[in-house]
Design brief:
Blueprint: E1 2-8, H1 15-28, E2 32-37, H2 52-63, E3 69-71, H3 84-94, E4 99-105, H4 106-109, H5 118-124, E5 126-131, H6 137-143, E6 154-157, H7 165-173, H8 184-193
Parallel strand pairs: 1-2, 1-4, 2-3, 4-5, 5-6
Helix pairs in contact: 2-8, 3-5
């Protein structure tokens, strides 16, 4: 089975995350994609973090009803800092027959050399680069040319959606609607739990 892995803060998850996962499924011939919210980020604190449990729950709500997408608690349930290399090893141990593909945006992929044990990451999974204008797979591989395994990476095009988690948080803080930017179930959870704002965001 070919399984894609999309990691991130998902603070909160939005339509861009789902589009990334869907496009990877279609273009890379994957059987399913795991969305893995970070437990404890290695290098930074998350802005306005409602906590890993809320972020995992929102990912579960975001992928609900799609049999090819799955929320994974592997990092949330593991103590200590969340390193991708440890996540990939844990996924291999749980399902040894899976072929893993690590799905990264081009900007994120170009910084892979600064990650913890980057060559071990590239040996545990095929790198898939979601390309953007001016930064395609070849440009990323050129920057990663000193890393074994980078040459096995693949690239795929991604529709441009100008939406981000920080934008969602800003709109909530300003009392602006977030409907259609996040799945309805995620928006409902944010409202019900009063996340990200002193004011209640509108979902109308």
């Amino acid at each position: 089975m070919k399984v894609g892995v999309v990691g991130g803060a998902f603070n909160p998850p939005h339509i861009g995350h789902l589009c990334l996962a869907q496009e990877a499924l279609a273009r890379l011939g994957l059987d399913r994609v795991l969305l893995v919210p970070v437990g404890a980020p290695p290098h930074r604190e998350l802005e306005s973090d409602p906590g890993a449990a809320h972020r995992l729950r929102m990912v579960q709500l975001a992928v609900g009803g799609d049999a090819q997408l799955e929320a994974s608690a592997v990092e949330v349930e593991r103590p200590g800092r969340s390193y991708t290399v440890d996540t990939l090893k844990a996924l291999h141990e749980t399902h040894p027959s899976q072929e893993l593909t690590l799905i990264l945006g081009a900007d994120q992929a170009r910084r892979l050399g600064s990650w913890h044990e980057p060559e071990q990451v590239l040996s545990a999974a095929t790198l898939a680069v979601a390309e953007r204008a001016g930064l395609d797979r070849d440009a990323v591989v050129d920057e990663l040319r000193d890393l074994r395994g980078a040459e096995r990476s693949v690239g795929f095009e991604l529709p441009r959606l100008d939406v981000s988690s920080s934008l969602i948080r800003e709109r909530i803080a300003d009392g602006l609607p977030i409907r259609y930017l996040v799945p309805d179930a995620v928006g409902d959870h944010i409202v019900a739990e009063g996340l990200y704002a002193t004011s209640t965001p509108s979902t109308a």
